Amino acid sequence: MSSGARNLLILGILSAAIALTTTGISLAVYHNSGDIYLDRSRPGFLPDEDEIESDKNENDDYKLSENAIITAEVLDEYLKYLTQEAENIDLYKDSFSSDGLSDSRLGL
Amino acid sequence: MKKFLANITLVVAALLAVSANFNTAKAETNTDLTTEQINSIKKNCAIIKDNLKSIQYEDSRVRVHLGRYYDIIQSNFITPLNVALVGNNISNINLIENQTNFVTARSKFASDYIAYQKGLEELVSLDCAAEPTRFHNKLTSVREKRAKVNSDTTKIQDLTNKQIDLVTKLKESL
């Protein structure tokens, strides 16, 4: 084997080792930080198609300007949209209730 | 000197072993499972695991939706209103306090949710057919973590409703 070929081989092995090490560190950080549990792009947790459709929310376009002149009319509009957001989260009110892990739900 | 170090090592190892046994014993006895319940867990292990996985999926879906709504409420409503009030020379300590509480509650929701999901993942990975008692103890711990997440969502819901009340009062005072 010529010295050029040997150097190329060493370079390849070193590159692979560095890539494996940095990937391993990244995965460890991803898992230990808990980001993995917030990520729905991982296999088995991808959203359904109909879920993506239902995600569209017309209220998302509203944002109170930080430079707004605060009047009763401005606050009226603010309250209208904020009430809708409150209703949105109210739909998930009991999502983490104890029923979710009850004996009957688990089949115990 | 060598003998002394060897003795110290032996004492430390013995203490660790006793501690490990004590913890294991504590974990194993911290339950009032009946034989019937143990048999039920063993028998239905596969079904229980499938149900846990579907709960994991459903929880992740709910968290994404709630997280998005919480982000919108904070970024599009609560924070900009307080900035705008400063620009309008209107002082409202209650709204500022509500913003602080909302940010804290969101942060607690995120950390409690991660702790709950970690516990749930560990629970799914346990072999309930081989270790039903350990499985049940872990399930109890995960249920407690889930209750914390539920309490966080209730708190955020209350803070959102409080924001509506405070802004309504502010509007009436203008």
Give the biggest sheet of chain A: none
The best one-word shape of chain B is elongated
Mean pLDDT across the residues of chain A is 87
**Secondary structure: number of strands of chain A:** 0
**Residue runs with pLDDT of under 50 for 5 or more positions of chain B:** 18-30
Mean pLDDT of chain B: 86
Strand proportion of chain A, as a percent range, falls in under 5%
- Biggest interface: A-B, 47 and 66 residues
Radius of gyration of chain A: 26 Å
Query: N- to C-terminal separation of chain B?
Result: 82 Å
Which overall shape of chain A is indicated by the principal axes computed on the Cα atoms?
A: elongated
Structural class of chain B: mainly alpha
Radius of gyration of chain B: 25 Å
Report strand % of chain B. Answer: under 5%
Kindly list the characteristics that best describe this protein.
A: mainly alpha; 2 domains; 0% strand; elongated; B: 174 residues; mainly alpha
Describe this structure in words.
The complex is a heterodimer of chains A (108) and B (174). Chain A contains four helices and no strands. The N and C termini of chain A lie far apart (65 Å). Chain A is mainly alpha-helical. The mean pLDDT of chain A is 87. Chain A has two domains: 47 residues; 43 residues, no CATH class. The radius of gyration of chain A is 26 Å and the shape is elongated. The relative contact order of chain A is 0.04. In chain B, helix 3 runs antiparallel to helix 4. Helices cover 89% and strands 0% of the residues of chain B. Chain B is an all-alpha fold. Chain B has one domain. The longest helix of chain B has 43 residues. Chain B is built from five helices and no strands. Chain B is elongated and about 65 Å long. The chains are: A mainly alpha (108), B mainly alpha (174).
